[in-house]
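Moderator note: this is an archived Q&A kept for reference. The question asked for a predicted structure of one protein chain; the sequence and the answer are reproduced below.
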Amino acid sequence: MVTFGKTLRQKQIQEWQGYYVDYKLLKRKVKRYVEQIEVSAENPENVMKDFSRILDKQIEKIVLFLMEQQGELARRLSGLGEQHDSLIQEADGIKASELLEAYRNVANDLLRLLFFVEMNAIALRKILKKFDKRFGYQFTNYYVKTRANHPYSQLRQVFKHVGISAVVGTISRNIADLQDLHGCYISIYDQPGLLPLDPVIKSIKAAVDRLMDSTDFLHYLGKHAFIIPDELSSSSEDHVADDRYHFLSLLLNLANTFLYMVNTYIIVPTADNYSMNLGAAATVCGVIIGSMAVAQVFSSVYFSAWSNKSYVKPLLFSTIVLLIGNTLYALAFDLNSIYVLLVGRLFCGLGSARAINRRYISDCVPRNLRMKASAAFVCASALGMACGPALACLLQTNFKMFKLTFNEVTLPGWVMAFAWLLYLFWLWIFFQEPSNENKENKSTAQQTMRSENIFIENSVAQPLILSLEETQEDEDREFDVSEEAAEESRKPVTSLMSAYKLLTPSVKVQLFIYFMLKYAMEILLAESSVVTTYYFIWSSSKVAIFLACLGLTVLPVNIFVGSYLSNILEERQVLLASEVMVCLGILFSFNVTNPYSIPQYVCSALVTFVSAEVLEGVNLSLLSRVMSSRLSKGTYNGGLLSTEAGTLARVIADGTITLAGYWGMSRLLNITLLPSLAICICSIIGTCFTYNSLY
């Protein structure tokens, strides 16, 4: 495997010293601007213009050097192309091997150039974030918007590596031709899937993928899984992921996600009937549905911690607990016990393995497949959400067997218990536990990469400064050390409080938005059976069809947003517009007319649900970019934080439904919608205050 190792990186940094972003000089400039503004000696607008000019010069230096190196690579490739043409006529195997090696040398030099671009891109992102943090207003938004979209943009050369793709194509095509020993002359353009298996091409492709910020549907959907990437990963880490990857295990992991979502929503259409059959009020359905979410608040933490050591053991434990929980849920009818019913749902929540599902994709799927696996995770969740109510619609029967009752309220428990039993056997037989040795290798690779990042940043930061600036080294040392110490820290957080401290105000607002949309969706879904039965006398099958239709909108809506809307509008604009639409949907849901009509309920529910789905996708896409990379690993990761925020929202929403039942069925709808509206308005206000802070 051809890798761009630590020694080569150090050598390159020394050779190309003067062409990297002068990171230390830029930090010193930021400090001076802060001091000048504090004494009111400088206008903030002048500061922005002056810093923009300095960044323009830095980027121009990078781009001119990049063009020079690309020209050199193009010249070498042109010469090799002439040799390639003559070689085809001679059919000399020895010369073919020499030419192949020459192309590999060019590819290695291209890899060095890609590393150069990547390090400068990271340095620019860091200094822009540092400027925003120190000043409290968004320079990044101004600079990127004015530079990146300009027809003569040089910033685009750094972040979009314009021109490098053509060089990659030339190298790939020629290596593929030289490796074609049978003379079939199949072009990579005729068969796009036919790519050379040469290791250096794989390394180049991985580097290009890291630089590319794609906005297609696959990448948009994949970000919904909220698997936060590190800013820079090593080839050794990717190699460890390749060793740990097992396709069938990934399928079983996704099957767990699908079944759990089915398990969550299959009882929604019949929960009110079940509670009344056991002598409780219909609104107790909120407690029945919410008890699963209550347990999930705790299960997410211990499963996330358990996944540090193993994957198959917690998955087996989760399946067994879910099997027991669904069996208790089904038996509660014959035992005539609401307590057995609630215990069964608590067990189902204790078996929630979504933290493991995310963690497995993050740790055991290679980088080139991780986005696809993340998108599959989201699709499995969406399909499970739609299939749950649809399956409940089919379970409309009533019979007894072995003194056990099988009807519309107990069959969801029996069906899911059987499904988890089958899954348990498949998991036991086919799931392959990643070895502990590979886990240790990955940890070593991460530590090695961490030390390399520190070395690189320190090396890049060595500026070619004037002697006058060197005299201020001691004065600025404390500032530099404290800043670098914060950036060098890459260790996983060890507590929820530590994770919370890493959240910026804008990220906290986005987590609150996630809380709001989950609260609104849970109010809508959990009370749907009670509301429709009271106002429209709908049967359980009609409620199930209604919920299934809502669930089926998830993927089409995300396709529209990911493929079209996100390419013409900023995600911040879509975020704010979606919040307003959720607010309008909630407002339209209030019962202010007599009688309350089906079109009003269905239309308002559709607007609320679809807008919340759009909001969830855009919000998590933004969060996956701006949340600290320290939250990409460990027990208390970003996925756990988002899961806890959403689960807490569901718990409070379900509790609200049950409490509102004390005021009577006629007031249930309006009482439950009031907190939802208040929270939504608060989230809109928070978004307006932090609008410019959103990526």
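Archived answer notes: Residues 44-90 form the longest helix (47 residues).
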